[in-house]
Design goal:
Number of helices: 8
Order of helices and strands: HHHEEHHEHHEEEHEEEEEE
Strand content: 35-45%
CATH architecture of the largest domain: Beta Barrel
CATH class of the largest domain: Mainly Beta
Shape: elongated
CATH topology of the largest domain: Porin
Number of strands: 12
Largest sheet: 8 strands, antiparallel, barrel
Length: about 325
């Protein structure tokens, strides 16, 4: 059944993760896909950019792309897309000027000289000089996944029990909180620290371990993982797939309700009586911290600048050398 088939997700994820490093390529700026690398002093489309602080060619490309994205968000104008037909020339020119001012301010703050002027063809064909205005470009900016060294995530969802745990515990729910740290923007690799809390209702096989008088029980599992997250190669700046896996430590807390019998004197409004009487009792049993490992995959999509949604599924096994607890948390979360 579906729960049984989820037990194989760990093997599939480990198999997928082997060729990932060879597949990853950074998403290039728009210019890199169609034009070759350019020298430090760049001139084209009436724009001249000169590095004042000896920036490398790679750094120049990175700075230009980041400033392009920032200027696009600030102005709502993108020189890589065509303007809608209902826009007037004056409106297009206004947004284009806003983009230029934002783009120039960003680059100048990073140590560049920026100059706008007439394109070389303007002196030969004045009519063509007006083309950039009437055939300018416009975009309603969309949120993008951007490099942020430290990110916070909260999540919650459904947890399926598999393997040995499937016969003892019903499927349950989970909530979690964590941090993701990218040491550098040059590598698609992050370190994650996640804490989670899951709760499961006990089945008959679980209750029978504690004696015939236990009639209800559930188990709570709480702890944390230290994982590596590897982002897969992607062409979209708005979404990405990634793999994750690592080790952790968890405790299991069983809450049991049953009937116990006690001998003594019992008194109520009508008087006292001596004998053996049944009582309802609640008992808690907690294991020590036990080691665990997990592996899974996720998908993330930006919904606003600096924030994104993600969906994750992972296989987790606790205490691999004794009474194993096996589960597959499937969660939806917010990262910001």
């Amino acid at each position: 059944m579906v729960r049984k088939s989820l037990g194989g997700i760990g093997i599939v994820v480990l198999t997928m993760s082997m060729p990932v490093n060879a597949q990853y390529t950074s998403t290039p700026p728009p210019e890199q896909r169609t034009t070759p690398a350019q020298p430090p002093a760049v001139r084209g489309d009436s724009l001249t950019i000169t590095a004042r602080n000896g920036q490398t060619e790679k750094q120049q490309w990175a700075d230009r792309y980041e400033c392009h994205k920032w200027a696009k968000d600030q102005s709502g104008f993108d020189p890589t897309l065509r303007a809608p037909s209902e826009m007037s020339s004056e409106e297009i020119r206004s947004h284009r000027d806003q983009y230029r001012r934002a783009f120039s301010a960003c680059l100048e703050g990073r140590g560049y000289s920026v100059q706008y002027g007439q394109a070389p063809s303007a002196a030969v064909a004045p009519a063509a000089a007006a083309a950039p205005v009437t055939a300018s470009h416009w975009v309603r900016s969309q949120p993008e996944l951007r490099y942020r060294p430290l990110q916070v995530q909260i999540e919650g969802g459904y947890t399926a029990t598999v393997g040995n745990s499937d016969s003892q515990l019903d499927d349950g729910s989970t909530v979690g909180f964590g941090l993701t740290w990218y040491p550098t923007s040059a590598l698609p690799l992050a370190v994650r620290v996640d804490g989670s809390y899951s709760s499961f209702r006990g089945r008959d096989a679980f209750l029978n371990q504690f004696g015939p008088n236990v009639y209800r029980g559930w188990e709570d599992v709480y702890g944390g993982d230290v994982d590596l997250q590897l982002d897969l190669a992607h062409s979209s700046s708005r979404s990405k797939l990634y793999l994750l896996g690592g080790a952790g430590w968890y405790r299991e807390r069983a809450t049991l309700r049953g009937v116990v019998y006690a001998t003594g004197t019992f008194c109520d409004y009508f008087g006292c009586d001596t004998g053996t009487f049944p009582f309802r009792a609640t008992d808690h049993q907690t294991t020590p911290w036990r080691s665990a490992w997990n592996a899974g995959l996720g998908w993330e999509i930006a919904y606003a600048d600096g924030a994104s949604f993600f969906v994750e599924a992972r296989y987790r096994q606790i205490a691999p050398r004794d009474d194993r607890v096996q589960m597959v948390p499937i969660t939806i979360g917010l990262r910001f």
